[in-house]
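Researcher: Let's do a round of design. I'm pasting the C-alpha cells now; please hold your answer until I've finished.
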C-alpha cells in the first residue's frame, strides 16, 4: 500500500477520533461508540488508527452516532480523494467483473492513444473471447467475486471495436512470458496466439514483443496502461492504482519507452509468437 494512501487513511482516522471525542452527546469511548453502532470494538479501533478503510455508509453512521451529521460531506470528500488513486479490487468487484469492464469501455472510448506494457497476460484489447473468459473465471474464483464471466466477456469484446475507429492507436508491448502463461487450456492459448500473429501490421495496432532473452534495462515489473497524457493505471493484487499527475505519467512513459527499446516488431514479433505457439501441446 502506498505511503500517500496510508497517510490519507491515517488522517481520516484521526478526524474520526476527533469527532468521537468531541461528540455532541458527550465524550464517547470507543467501546460506547461500537455498542451504539452495533460494531465490534475492533472495527472502531482499526478505523481510528488508519488500519481499515471505511465505506461511505460507515462514515455516515459514525457521524450520526456522534451527533455530528454535518461532518459527513467532509469525511466523504476525504475518502473519495484517496480512493480515486487506489481502487480496491474487493470493492470494485463487489458487483462482478462486468461493471469494471464497462467503466473501462468509457475510459478507453475517450482515449486516442494507449501505451501498454503487459507482463502477465495477453492485452485485453487483443484477447479472444475464450481467452478472456478463462481469465475472468480464474479471477472470480480467486477473489470469490460474483460469477458474471459472460457479461464481462461481452463488455471486453465490445471495447475492441475501438481498434477499428479512425484516429485510434494501440501501442502495446508484451513480455514473452505473458504469451507463455498457461492460465487457460492449451487449445485456447494456441488460438489466442494465432490471433496475435494476424494482428501484427494492423494500422491501429503497434505490437511489440520483448523476448525472454532480450537485454532489459529495467526489471519487467507490473503491467500498466497510459491513456493519452491524462491517466496511468497499474494493477496489483490488492488494488488498481489510478495516477493522474503529470510527473508520474511522464515517468511511466519513460518506462514504456525503455521496454520499447528491447522489443521486436513486425516479422520478428511474429516469429517470437510462432515459436511460443509451436511449444504448446494441443
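Researcher: That's everything. Go ahead.
Model: Designed sequence:
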Amino acid at each position: 500500500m502506498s505511503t500517500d494512501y496510508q497517510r490519507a487513511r491515517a488522517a481520516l482516522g484521526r478526524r474520526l477520533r476527533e469527532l468521537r471525542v468531541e461528540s455532541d452527546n458527550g465524550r464517547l469511548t470507543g467501546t460506547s461508540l461500537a455498542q451504539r453502532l452495533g460494531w465490534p470494538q475492533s472495527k472502531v479501533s482499526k478505523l481510528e488508527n488508519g488500519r481499515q478503510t471505511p465505506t461511505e455508509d460507515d462514515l455516515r453512521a459514525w457521524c450520526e452516532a456522534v451527533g455530528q451529521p454535518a461532518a459527513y460531506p467532509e469525511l466523504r470528500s476525504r475518502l473519495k480523494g484517496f480512493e480515486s488513486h487506489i481502487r480496491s479490487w474487493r470493492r470494485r468487484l463487489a458487483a462482478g467483473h462486468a461493471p469494471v469492464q464497462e467503466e473501462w469501455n468509457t475510459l478507453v472510448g475517450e482515449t486516442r492513444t494507449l501505451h501498454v506494457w503487459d507482463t502477465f497476460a495477453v492485452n485485453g484489447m487483443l484477447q479472444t473471447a475464450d481467452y478472456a473468459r478463462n481469465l475472468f473465471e480464474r479471477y472470480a474464483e480467486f477473489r470469490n467475486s460474483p460469477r458474471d464471466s459472460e457479461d464481462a466477456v461481452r463488455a471486453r469484446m465490445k471495447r475492441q471495436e475501438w481498434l477499428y475507429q479512425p484516429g485510434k492507436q494501440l501501442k502495446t508491448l508484451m513480455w514473452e512470458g505473458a504469451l507463455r502463461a498457461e492460465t487457460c487450456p492449451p487449445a485456447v492459448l494456441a488460438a489466442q496466439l494465432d490471433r496475435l500473429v494476424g494482428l501484427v501490421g494492423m494500422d491501429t495496432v503497434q505490437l511489440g514483443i520483448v523476448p525472454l532473452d532480450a537485454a532489459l534495462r529495467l526489471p519487467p515489473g507490473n503491467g500498466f496502461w497510459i491513456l493519452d497524457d491524462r491517466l496511468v493505471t497499474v494493477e496489483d493484487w490488492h488494488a488498481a492504482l489510478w495516477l493522474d499527475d503529470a510527473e508520474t505519467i511522464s515517468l511511466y512513459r519513460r518506462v514504456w519507452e525503455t521496454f520499447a527499446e528491447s522489443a521486436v516488431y513486425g516479422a520478428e514479433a511474429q516469429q517470437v509468437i510462432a515459436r511460443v505457439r509451436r511449444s504448446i501441446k494441443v
